[in-house]
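Let's inspect one such protein example.
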Amino acid sequence: MSQVPRKTLAMVQTAPRKLEARDLPIPDIGDDAGLIRIEACGICGSDYEQYEGALRTPMPVIPGHEPLGIVAKIGDAAARRWGIDVGDRVAVETMISCRFCAPCLGGRYHLCDSRRIYSYIPLSDEPGLWGAYAEYMYLDPNAVVHRLDPSIPAATAVMFNPLGAGFRWGVEMPRTGPGDTVLILGPGQRGLSCVLACRAAGAAKILVSGLAADAPKLALAREFGADHCIDVENENLVERVRELTAGRGADVVVDVSSYSTEPVVQAIDCAAVGGRVVLAGVKGFVPIPGLISDKIVIKEIELKGAIGVTSSGYANAIRLIESGRHPIEKMHTHDFGLRDAELAIRTLAREIPGEASIHSCLLPGKD
């Protein structure tokens, strides 16, 4: 076992839009559990929803569900089960499942009946050190971890999470393969990750849509392999997709836009006959104006919702990162120290004038 301090700095959410720095005790580790020293924690849209209070998570709680870290302590049973030891770098999956309910036994552990997400487990739930907005984080016995090359810069390596979503949502769920035309609605970090994943899967043509303000992201999408980018504020998306596909539409449409409901309607209109549509962007539980379900029936569209990432997506993402074949580091725009967690969240949410973030992360060592 390596030496670790008795306490760790953690950013604790105590109320909506309120984070406070606390020194918390580092728990003892049992034979089947572990402890990692956080190198980096990615920031995504759901961090903002949690910060705003929209997710109504228990409080006080340590946010942060995209952890990359170095194993600091580990029980013997856990080391054997995970195949890791002190000093190894690991990427930690977001969800903790029970492994025994019907979804888990059916191979859908991310839909576990009693699943927990690290960043939503309150401090009152022993041992309390759950989320990754901290210097150290507890590894539950049912955690899923992946080893990752320690030579890769932490800010790049921590992109395993959005890239994992790109592979699962953009490739695995819609079965994207050679010859497919793919339309990705939204050029954020997960939209850009879908571009990389679909290009790796051999898609023949990749289209990406965004707003006029997304021009830098759309430029990066082209660099990552998108064939065409569509500014939906200055072009008619449906007409442009028809033009670029000779009237056929896209074989695969992936909506990773947040809150706006119009892309759901556009996804149906842009899909080819027999096309596959994946909805992965949450809309705040509001109705979809203008949605005509008969179009789904008549075109026999396969429509799927996507929540979370599973091990195959993470594994493909890590392989892509470790290959070094793509300039994925260009997607990373901001580093923040742990005490600047609130600024990191607000920057991603475009609340800071003059700042535009694609991917950002907390680096506890930066403080």
Q: What stands out?
A: The chain has two domains: 7-158+327-366, 164-305. The mean pLDDT is 94. The domain at 7-158+327-366 is CATH 3.90.180.10 (Quinone Oxidoreductase; Chain A, domain 1). The first helix runs from residue 45 to 52.
